[in-house]
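Example (one chain per record):
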Amino acid sequence: MKSIRVIFILLAALCCRSAVHAQEDYRFDIGLGVGMTGYLGDANNSNLWKNPSWDAEVLFRYILNPRFNFKTNFYIGQLRGNSAQMTDVFPSHENYKFSTLFYELGETVEFHFFNYGMGETYRRLKRWTPYIVAGVSLTAWTVDSKFGAAFTIPLGVGFKFKPALRWNLGLEFLMKKTFADRIDGPALNDPIGIRSSFMKNTDWYSTLTFSVSYEFSKRCAVCHYNEPKKR
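Predicted structure:
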């Protein structure tokens, strides 16, 4: 009886372990993040971290496969700048200081350098991976009681680590090019009289965000195969 009991316990443990490994594949991922922001524009043209501020993020991912994710995210944060800290001067010799509250809704694609996840060894999954990310977003802001909005292109890199099944830790740095010159306030809209272009006289900002996320909606725990009947 003792031997049968030991065998039964070992079989139960093996089944539980197999079930855990079979449940690693999920469709979606949801999480929260916090971090810091930087700004490059008319009030700061050299040092991205001259006047850092804060950001918070809500994210939702569709996990296509271990290499590709599609992420929808919503940011809220603050940008700050002070032209008095620059070596350059404006034609009017005036100094401008601003604080902007921004809201960003975006869609990005993440490409993992390694097959990311936990589970079957034949898939060569790794619990960590660096990745690159790109996408498009809409950013709205308020500064000096003025409202503005513009399309934004986020580009960046990140790093993910899976401390446990279904849980993810991430650190992501994004540079975001805005198609506007007003995120730092109406007074800094083309203050040097040079027509805006893709790289000149438009505002950029960055987010460096640490996130925690949780996967859900199991894709397929057991795949059944029905052999076709022979005629």
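Caption: The first helix runs from residue 2 to 22.
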